[in-house]
Design goal:
Number of strands: 0
Helix content: 40-55%
Shape: globular
Distance between the termini: 19 Å
CATH architecture: Orthogonal Bundle
Mean pLDDT: 93
CATH class: Mainly Alpha
CATH superfamily: lambda repressor-like DNA-binding domains
Length: 78
């Protein structure tokens, strides 16, 4: 698998920071995503935040909607 700076994604740190900012646990974020039809278990979110799992485009869009993140922000580390 290709990696960038030894990570499987570049959005994990931003997701983590915004999840904490919204005072959400991994489980609470998982539950909110489930309500809009995207299944990401707390462990999936953990691996995404740690850069150990690829994020699918629809997952990223759902996370951005839930955490109120502008999608352009997700690419700022490039």
């Amino acid at each position: 698998m290709n990696k960038y700076k030894d990570r499987s994604n570049i959005s994990g740190n931003i997701i983590h920071d915004n999840r904490i900012k919204h005072n959400l646990s991994l489980e609470k974020l998982s539950n909110k995503l489930e309500l809009i039809g995207v299944t990401l278990y707390p462990n999936d979110l953990y691996l995404i935040e740690k850069g150990q799992r690829i994020v699918k485009d629809f997952e990223l869009m759902a996370i951005c909607m839930t955490l109120e993140i502008d999608t352009k922000v997700m690419l700022k580390e490039m």
